[in-house]
Amino acid sequence: MPGLTANLQLLTPEFALAGLALLVLAVDLVVPQNRKNLLGWLSIAGLLGLIALSLKMLWGENETLYGGLLAVDAFSLFFKIFFLGLGIFIILSSMDYVEKNLTSRGEFYGLILFSILGMNVMAQSRELLTAYISLELLSFCLYVLAAYARNEAKSNEAGLKYIIIGAFSSAVLLYGVSMVYSTLGVTQFASISAALANPGDVSPALWVGMALILVGLGFKLAAVPFHMWAPDVYEGAPFPVTAYLAIGSKAAAFALVLRLFAEGFLPAVDQWRIVVAVMAAITMLTGNLVALAQHNIKRLMAYSSVGQVGIILTGVAALSADSILPASGVMLYLVGYSLTNMLVFAGLISFFNMTGREDISAFRGLADGQPFLAATIAIGLFSLGGMPIFAGFTVKFYLFTALASQGLLWLAGLAIFSSLISLYYYLQVIRQMYIRPVEEVAEAIAGEDVYVPTGPEVSTSPLILIVQSVTLVGVFWVGVYPAPFLTVIDAASHAILPGL
Amino acid sequence: MENFDQIALALIIFIPLAGAIAAMFMPADRQKDVWYFAIVVAGLCFALSLYIFLRYDYGAGGFQFQDSYKWLPAPVDINLSLAVDGISALLILLNGIILLGGVLISQNIVYRPRDFFVLLLALGAGVFGTFAVRDLFFLFFFYELAVLPMYLLIGVWGSSTDFRTFFRAKEYAATKLFLFLVAGSVLVWIGILAVYMGAAESGFPTFSMETLGRLAEAGQLSEEFQTWVFPLFMVGFGVLAGMWPFHTWSPDGHVSAPTAVSMLHAGVLMKLGAYGIIRVGMVIVPEGAENWMPVLITLGTVNVLYGAVSAMSQTDLKYIIGYSSVSHMGYVLMGIATLDRIGVGGAVLQMFSHGIMTALMFLLVGAIYDRTHTRDISVLKGLFSRMGVTGFFFAIAGLASMGLPGLSGFIAEFMVFTGAFRTYLPLAVLAVIGAALTAVYILRLLALTFLGESDARWEHLTDASPVEKAVGGAFVLIMIFVGVWPEPLLRLINVSVDALPGV
User: Fold this and answer.
1) Where would a tag sit more exposed on chain B, N or C end, judged by fewer CB atoms within 10 A?
2) B163-173 residue pLDDT tens
């Protein structure tokens, strides 16, 4: 095909990212064991450079590459910046943890960089196999990262569980892809969309294929009933990896889902809307109800993220050919959700570095010992529960408005109700940190507090402080004035819904 | 002055919010400095609220001090539109008064004082915002912002009480209050989205209350639609207004809350609920409101009687006043439900009058509790000889609560009854009986606590502090002023009530 490589330079950021990852792995060989943080800084510098490069090169571009396999448009640029920024936050908040708890520190950063590459390509792919390959690139990195604390049984268990379930779901996904290919002879999103233009006379095999793809992606998203792996993997994985799983892998999977459903499946929306809506409803209710019973903060966050996935899925169910609101709603929610979760996880990681504990009762009295840490966690949790002036309220309101505009009021009502449930278990953590029996208050005033956390390191490291400050500003910004974010997001929505 | 009028409402929301943020950066251990700072901020708010109240042109009526900021463009179309009518101007003044009073009497907060005032000011900003906006998104935003700090204010600075037969822990009260209120706002939120959906079907997807009100007036929202949406608002906002049977969070919350929070909670926060029913329910879905009013007035009557009977059987001062709030909010709900010019006007006046009265009562109970460390009326007796001014103020507040002529409560209740007699005679009769019950529990409280032989245990008691006396005295003067000359309030109320649809 002529011109297949004509605009290859648009992929420069991806090539550069792969190069950066290889560079980190190579430098790892010559950096002494006690200076491995250097690799983290190298990765951060590289990622910052890539953000600048991507913005400069790709702003306003709208092209396809390799004959339609990849798209370089506002949507992929939005998610590229999203993932690169997320990578910086994750690396910043993991450097202390990695130094203290993990071996083979160099590869840790290399794997994170490779997984970001996978995410970037996921957001760009407009073809099922390309999407699958990038998804696998991401997943393989995550399998290794989940098992990275190799001296701990739990981490090994997490990695094993994750890879088995992951392989299984990949097989389901691939089977769905092959069904689509066998009926249509193509795997491009656009061709699927054309084939679905008249949903009445579509071969049943195509429906089965689409259903299998949905199931496969459901596993990756940890949507109920395909979520069973999530709590165990979250609990076993090293703390920063848990954060990465909760934010990065979810956002990447949603990037793929958005493009696939908007560019590929949208003409048959009347057929699949109810399926996705029901899946969303079950997911948010199950996630939030089961979270009520958790005592471990990682498992709590795992179920909380299952619940949040359910809420984001409602936006996918509301996708429509005549409005960009649902697509924008999903992306804005992803921004708010990621900032908030990053804020919470940075605090939790810092707390773990101080105390080595991850049970909720360990947070008792934290507000007196570490006021800033407790405040950031509390703000994050209130935001996740959907309280205003934080991001959580605004993004929920926007997403639910999108649902209402598509007539899905029942689903919005259910989502609001499940937010109420979630608020209860977030309150349990806040209660441990802030609310103390009257006698303890008296002790705290007298300076004889016994519950203030003590440990090898009793202050938040500057690295995590950076993450906390930036995400804190972000959480307030999205909560109070999301208009600038929406300008960018609306452009991204227009890219995947070109008819509007 | 024109320019200042335009930004007055933005300022009254922004000042406490900015004050809260600024206070966060103050040193945590400088308790007095934080308190002075909070007084300055609350004082500014009070001055602004008084300015807005006095400058509202009741001759012209309608919405004044209009100002609008673009927030999100179409298709969602959300603007921060600010404006007040007479009702909101009055309630903004109420919040200004009680916020300042609450801050003033909080000089003895020693545990994390900075955080206390940060949350208190944020709460104040939320209440000001709810009264000042003309957009459903922001109404809900500020409404939730007013609810959020309550959890921590009660949970962290509250008190747990052992009632021998049961133990009321502050975290229980805080969690119960918070979940009840958020559960109420779940319904409100669904209602707001339903209204948006309904308006979108008529071709105007908007959250602007002005546009929505006009749509309702033009009959663009079908009666059937309005009839299923109104209960969402009625129950959702009703939870915050202490509507039976969703009132149970309120007395528990009062009992555990620190004094200033009780004052704001009963004085202003519960009014947000009633305000929501008027501003959102009655204006945006008026036909639905009309169909549901018999239910609301019945619930309001139950409130009056149930609250009064419960208050009669309590032995804890705060529980008595908490249940009396439930009872008095019943008059507000009844007044609204009459859809009668005098009845609704009485409801609004009752909101103001009850706000001041109940804030004063909580202030005095706080003063007593600070000195005796008990609120049990079977233990307290003969306090009058030791705490004369406290007892005197308490008696006036109690008389206002009973509806004695010459005090604010009389006019408000009289108007509500007049409205109710015109529309729902049997319920009005029941409510008058409720007013008689008020006399029973108030007199019982006064007699047991203040009169009789003084106990040797209370020999050493000192009277209220000068600050408490000043704030309490100001509240008493306001009650007398309103009782003797309600005209300045009523002309604002009347011009705005007349503009409500369906009245």
Assistant:
1) N
2) 777 888 888 88
